[in-house]
Task: structure prediction
Amino acid sequence: MKLRRDIFQAISDPTRRAILVLLTSQSMTAGAIAENFDAARPTISKHIQILNECDLVDANQQGREIYYELKVEKMKEIDKWLEQFRAIWENRFNQLDNLLETLKNKNNEE
Amino acid sequence: MKSNLLFNFSVNKENKTINIQREFNANLELVWKAWTEPELLNQWWAPKPYHIVTKTLDLEIGGMWLYAMVSPENEKTWCKADYKGIEINKLLSWLDAFCDENGNENTIKPRSLWTNIFTEKNDITLVDVTLKHDKLEDIETLIKMGFKEGFGMALLNLDQLLLTKNKKQ
Result:
């Protein structure tokens, strides 16, 4: 049960989800991650710390820098648990966006 | 403009709820129509590559929306929503279930109580969806079922990313 709780906590926040997505392509330092967000650097560090505590990212010391890396196996847990569901909604709502655009255009023509 | 529209997705394990908030670039009346008229629901409700065909939709408390989820292989899974609360342009609530083509429910899937709340601000409509469950395990079951039914198409990109990542290690 512990694992589940951790994962829920980790991905309940949009910034943390965005960090995880960033880390899918490469390992990054906290500074490099923070550059992608408007939030203050300590806020981002806090998010990284939570992801680390939830066992979703690894911290690797390389010289003077700490690089954060995605723990792929844990990500798969999330994948199984929730991204599936989220993706359904994303897909569904994109279709609704398109439909609403069509309906709006039709209304304008009348 | 689409990218600026809010999309939140979260799970609250204490309340056993899934919450989804999404903004749409349209006014309230139009969004409400899209959620309540069968010919419009048919055009967006099913995640690709599925589509739905509504058999009946009786928009009143105690009424039912009965539809088939149709796979690319043309296999039909019947689903229904029993309407529990309706306030036009404001609130739409139902209890979902898998069923047969006459709306007789079966127990394959745990039922979710949906509460959809619609609000508009400056021509942008926010829909706040809450799915409430009896047990936390129900959420897990739902997600496993999604897998089984092949809803995973949209996740292929993430799978590929993870695969690339695995190779690097």
